[in-house]
């Protein structure tokens, strides 16, 4: 997987942003995260070597790891990004957003029912945002959709919104002040995904994880490892 950050910086817009790792890392380096700045990597997908090959290899490209692809401050640059995405049909571009309600304002004129090589992930953390954001998400013309429940802050019901979803990712919050993550929440979402034939992935535990009535402190470098040990990921069953 490649990473493409055409701009950097972000502005907190959701309850899940409280302990954002981007803001924490920038604070340590005395960088103002609220300044949205175009990066030197802006044209990375179409940049070529002397032999004519692309620097960005074919395959999955994770977009805006340190920002939000739909953030308002990047409106002036996004159309150029869509042109690069359209040029690189050998790549699949994945972006996650907390601003899904801006989607229709941000797409290119030729979007129609979506680009084949774009996957959009809608981020939700509690039932209020599940009902608001996913009710918007389910109506959008996007060919490949996933739901990101990370950090998940409470038990949620996704069942009304799982049609045409390819993947649901669940994870807890990672921070010394992190809010509690209950393992039962992951199991509940997993059961919903199985019922609706949606692939499920338990990405990471929370720093403070409750399981079988006990609360465990898990170091950051063990969060993904412990989730993997749970062995509860599921695959989507392909229909004939």
Give a short synopsis of this structure.
With 240 residues, the protein is an alpha/beta fold. It has helices spanning 21-28, 75-87, 103-106, 127-137, 183-195, 223-230, and strands at residues 2-4, 7-8, 37-38, 59-63, 91-97, 118-123, 144-149, 165-171, 181-182, 199-204, 208-211, 214-217. The chain has 6 helices and 12 strands.
Question: What features would you describe in this structure?
Answer:
The longest helix has 13 residues, at 75-87. The chain has helices at 21-28, 75-87, 103-106, 127-137, 183-195, 223-230; strands spanning 2-4, 7-8, 37-38, 59-63, 91-97, 118-123, 144-149, 165-171, 181-182, 199-204, 208-211, 214-217. It has two domains: 1-93, no CATH class; 124-240. The strands form three sheets. A seven-stranded parallel sheet has the order 1-4-5-6-7-8-10. The protein has a three-stranded mixed sheet with strand order 9-11-12. It has a two-stranded antiparallel ribbon with strand order 2-3. With 240 residues, it is an alpha/beta fold.
Helix content range:
10-25%
**Strand line-up across the major sheet:** 1-4-5-6-7-8-10
Query: How many domains make up the 3D coordinates?
Result: 2
* Overall pLDDT metric: 96
Q: What structural category arises from helix and sheet content? A: alpha/beta
Oligomeric status: single chain
In one word, what is the shape? globular
Radius of gyration: 18 Å
